[in-house]
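Example for tutorial group B:
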């Protein structure tokens, strides 16, 4: 009986003990979950194994010459684990003061005391992750790795580095809108947005573990984890031309206090866009402009007078009009139903009957509208069909997003009125983008071949071409050869004798058309009796053998005039001047030019024989020898014949006599005079025009002579 009782007691004791152990376990679980939960979650975060995405490096965007337009640069978020197991109190205390001082000196965002309190508080609270600074550059990161405490290594120093790639534009805002961007939940813009699939590459993935220092490291050898970096884009942009275009546009926008403007420079034969600038005033009281919207490709607007070329092209192709036909300008006013068509301005003697060529040169709204109305009033659909054959009723389908949609009114529709045709003929009542306008003018320059504007030359990967973009012909012939020649003569006439005569120069020829369009607001062209204007100029150069086409738009100029030749024209001219000056081969070669033409325009300075003969040989200049030659030469040109004569100024100087130095180049004149111990002063540049000591004058050593150059 006692044995049985003893067994029962022992059993109850065992159950009681097990019960207490169970309660202790439950209590411990509750304590860990409720009291120490945050601590162990932090510990778990430091020892996690998972598949992680390894971001691919986004490809670069280059200019045509290899200049970097957009690239991805690494930036680092720097944090610290100030409670890593290897960081003792002694190590922390001995270095935290000097570390705080170094951090404050490097980042300059907090004082030394603020950094000290940040690190000390985190240490006292047992924190394992303290953010020190975001977006640290690579150079600053290398400096930081040598700071006290941190330089002890990943485990003792507790450094945590997280790399992020950030897109950078080395040329800052140059072509910023065309380069564009691709961001999450935002409409893609420019080359970044359009070619994002090429630039992005393919992210890698692999099994990684997070160490106590917060750094993710591969579990295995890292095989099959490497990402495929993105391809590079070689754009058509010429950095120098882009800089010229933006600078010229900004200067004129500021001068005229305009709202916004755009410029596109294109290569005639290929359609390659070499420069595209879009600038917007930040606010009404500001003189600061920046790229905020791509007006050149995205703004569909009324083109105004630049559209007159389109109208005459259609009429000439239909065989209804010739440039020699005449039209009465009626003093610059003509009434269509209840609306009065007006010309901007004309000389009184040219406000009556002129030929169509002259009406175009004067940009006469009355003249062009009367011609088109005369031939198409009974068949307006034929005129509109002719315009549509040019393709301006359809977008260009550019390689970048955001292209503006054109709008051409249709006869018989609800938006077609009795006055629609005459106003349409001079660029009102329809909308197209500036780049669409330029594309047609470029086709005229390109012997009728309409090429698609393009912004990308090639896509490359590791220096090898993945895809090459060839010119795309949209229309092999926009009009007949005879119409084309007439149009080109008319465009040249605008610059030679018409509204753009201020762009004429003696170095190279320009062909183009001015435009001054009133801007409609809520269906009205005047707001509070004040008209708002859009000035433009579109054309190409050199006129005889076009290499480049260009369009300039200046929107809402408010000071110093608003006509196209005054506001847009100077921008075109500045760009053309600098492009022409920097373009090798744009002029015919010397060998292709007859020597008579060369010699008729030749001016040769008297001077050293050796240098002169080198120039003659290089340019293949023909000359005639008139006497025994010497080390110095003088020249005479008569009836296209260049005669070379020996010249001996040094012999006269040896006799103490001043020689005749006229037409001698300054370098040689100074050389022989100073060798004769004369003191020489030079004014101006070029060849010697005047000399203070007349030829034949007796001189003494040390005497001063002044040379005035031509």
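The residue assignment follows.
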């Amino acid at each position: 009986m006692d044995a049985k009782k003893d067994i029962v007691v022992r059993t109850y004791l065992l159950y009681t003990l097990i019960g207490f152990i169970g309660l202790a376990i439950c209590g411990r679980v509750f304590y860990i979950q409720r009291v120490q939960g945050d601590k162990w979650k932090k510990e778990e975060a430091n020892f996690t194994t998972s598949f992680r995405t390894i971001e691919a490096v986004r490809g670069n965007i280059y200019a045509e010459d290899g200049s970097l337009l957009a690239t991805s640069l690494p930036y680092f978020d720097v944090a610290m684990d100030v409670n890593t197991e290897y960081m003792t109190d002694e190590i922390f205390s001995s270095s935290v003061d000097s570390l705080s001082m170094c951090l404050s000196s490097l980042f300059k965002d907090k004082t030394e005391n603020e950094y000290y309190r940040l690190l000390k508080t985190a240490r006292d609270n047992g924190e394992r992750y303290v953010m020190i600074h975001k977006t640290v550059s690579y150079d600053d990161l290398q400096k930081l790795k040598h700071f006290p405490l941190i330089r002890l290594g990943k485990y003792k120093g507790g450094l945590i580095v997280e790399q992020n790639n950030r897109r950078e534009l080395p040329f800052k805002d140059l072509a910023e809108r065309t380069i564009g961007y691709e961001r999450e939940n935002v409409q893609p813009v420019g080359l970044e947005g359009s070619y994002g699939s090429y630039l992005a590459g393919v992210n890698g993935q692999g099994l990684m573990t997070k160490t106590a220092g917060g750094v993710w490291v591969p579990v295995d050898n890292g095989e099959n984890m490497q990402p495929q970096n993105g391809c590079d884009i070689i754009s058509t942009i010429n950095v120098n031309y882009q800089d010229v275009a933006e600078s010229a546009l900004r200067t004129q926008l500021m001068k005229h206090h305009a709202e916004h403007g755009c410029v596109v420079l294109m290569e005639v034969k290929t359609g390659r866009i070499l420069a595209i600038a879009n600038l917007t005033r930040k606010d009404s009281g500001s003189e600061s402009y920046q790229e905020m919207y791509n007006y050149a490709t995205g703004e569909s607007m009324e083109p105004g007078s630049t559209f007159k070329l389109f109208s005459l092209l259609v009429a000439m192709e239909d065989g209804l009009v010739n440039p020699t036909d005449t039209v009465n300008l009626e003093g610059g006013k003509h009434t269509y139903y209840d609306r009065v068509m007006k010309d901007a301005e004309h000389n009184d003697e040219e406000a009556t009957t002129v030929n169509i060529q002259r009406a175009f040169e004067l940009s006469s709204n009355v003249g062009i509208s009367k011609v088109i109305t005369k031939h198409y009033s009974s068949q307006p659909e034929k005129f509109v069909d002719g315009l549509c054959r040019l393709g301006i009723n359809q977008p260009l389908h550019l390689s970048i997003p955001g292209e503006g949609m054109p709008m051409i009114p249709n006869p018989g529709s609800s938006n077609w009125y009795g006055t629609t045709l005459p106003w349409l003929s001079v660029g009102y009542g329809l909308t197209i983008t500036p780049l669409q306008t330029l594309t047609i003018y470029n086709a005229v320059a390109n012997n009728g071949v309409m090429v698609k504007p393009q912004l990308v030359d090639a896509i490359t990967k590791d220096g090898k071409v993945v895809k090459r973009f060839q010119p795309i012909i949209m229309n092999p012939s926009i009009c007949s050869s005879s119409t084309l020649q007439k149009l080109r003569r008319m465009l040249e006439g605008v610059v030679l004798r018409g509204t753009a005569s201020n762009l004429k120069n003696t170095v190279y020829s320009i062909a183009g058309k001015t435009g001054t369009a009133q801007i409609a607001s809520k269906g009205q062209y005047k707001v509070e009796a004040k008209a708002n204007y859009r000035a433009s100029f579109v054309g190409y150069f050199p006129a005889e053998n076009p290499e480049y086409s260009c369009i300039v738009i200046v929107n809402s100029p408010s000071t110093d005039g608003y006509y196209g030749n005054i506001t847009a024209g100077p921008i075109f001219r500045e760009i053309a001047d600098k492009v022409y000056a920097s373009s090798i081969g744009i002029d015919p070669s010397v060998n292709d030019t007859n020597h008579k033409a060369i010699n008729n325009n030749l001016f040769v300075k008297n001077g050293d024989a050796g240098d002169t003969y080198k120039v003659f040989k290089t340019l293949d200049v023909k000359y005639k020898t008139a006497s025994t030659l010497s080390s110095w030469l003088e020249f005479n040109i008569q009836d296209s014949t260049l005669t070379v004569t020996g010249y001996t100024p040094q012999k006269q100087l040896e006799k103490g006599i001043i020689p005749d130095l006229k037409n001698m180049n300054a370098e040689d004149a100074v050389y022989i005079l100073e060798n004769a111990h004369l003191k020489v002063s030079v004014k101006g540049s070029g060849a010697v025009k005047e000399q203070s000591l007349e030829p034949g004058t007796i001189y003494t050593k040390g005497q001063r002579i002044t040379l005035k150059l031509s």
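The first strand starts at residue 49 and ends at 54. Compare this with the pattern of hydrophobic and polar residues in the output above.
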